[in-house]
Design a protein that fits this description.
By secondary structure, this protein is an alpha/beta fold. The protein has 7 helices and 11 strands.
Length: about 240
């Protein structure tokens, strides 16, 4: 069985997840082609090599002509329903978006059907979530595991103003997941990253028992002076004959 382990020593975001899977071998041009079959506006995906403190990684950049946002979960659901995803992938994507909406509803004390996604409803977020699922399909991954997550301090600018870090939605999404504090003042775990891994990863903890295959690195968009701002993902196998990939 093919598995992944996400080593989130510098956090996790949607674009870091895409970059890490691209570095493992997922073809972003194929992801882009499939996304453009159903998205409301055309996008481009470019996986650019970057060196972060001596480590070569990939930075996935989403390009579009304008930034569309969606009023709520119903519009996102309609986009997913007309997509080319399998039923299982649609269910996973819908669960991720539903959890995002539920967390926003709890924070703002409004019904889920009144949640306005703001930046969470942008095309970029659908690209991150659905693109991640399409990349997993290419890599034929069956199970995923994740490390504990770093929690920073500071403030971040969001749609409603300046919020404390970790962002309120991120904390809601990470209930029940092991985390630890770090003394940096940049956002390390984004709501999109938190929603994807907390929904899809089987467990959070130390490196699992597996035969290591390949290693990929996804680059973050901001610089850290203390450690490389990267997401490391390790692919491997459990069970079977443990042949090299």
């Amino acid at each position: 069985m093919k598995v992944l382990y996400f080593d989130c020593f510098s956090g996790v975001s949607g674009d870091m997840l895409l970059g890490a899977l691209a570095d493992l071998g997922a073809d972003m041009s194929l992801v882009e082609k499939e996304l453009n079959m159903f998205l409301p506006q055309p996008i481009t995906l470019a996986a650019k090599p970057v060196v972060v403190q001596g480590i070569t990684s990939l930075d996935v950049v989403v390009g579009n002509t304008f930034s569309a946002t969606f009023a709520g979960l119903d519009e996102v659901t309609a986009i997913l329903e007309r997509s080319t995803l399998s039923d299982q992938e649609k269910a996973a994507a819908l669960e991720i978006f539903t959890r995002l909406a539920t967390c926003e509803a709890r924070i703002h004390r409004v019904p889920v059907d009144q949640v306005h996604f703001h930046e969470l409803g942008a095309v970029d977020t659908i690209v991150d979530i659905v693109g991640f699922l399409l990349a997993l399909r290419q890599l034929q991954i069956q199970e995923m595991y994740c490390s504990p997550l770093p929690m920073p301090r500071g403030l971040v600018k969001m749609a409603h103003g300046r919020y404390p870090l970790p962002a309120p939605a991120t904390l809601e999404l990470l209930k029940g997941i092991p985390c630890y504090g770090v003394e940096v003042d940049i956002e390390l775990v984004t709501p999109t990253g938190a929603a994807i891994i907390s929904t899809l990863c089987k467990s959070f903890g130390p490196f699992p028992s597996m035969t290591i295959g390949n290693v990929g690195y996804g680059a973050g968009k901001t610089c850290r002076p203390d450690v490389p701002n990267l997401l490391r993902v390790v692919s491997g196998t459990v069970g079977g004959s443990h042949l090299k990939e």
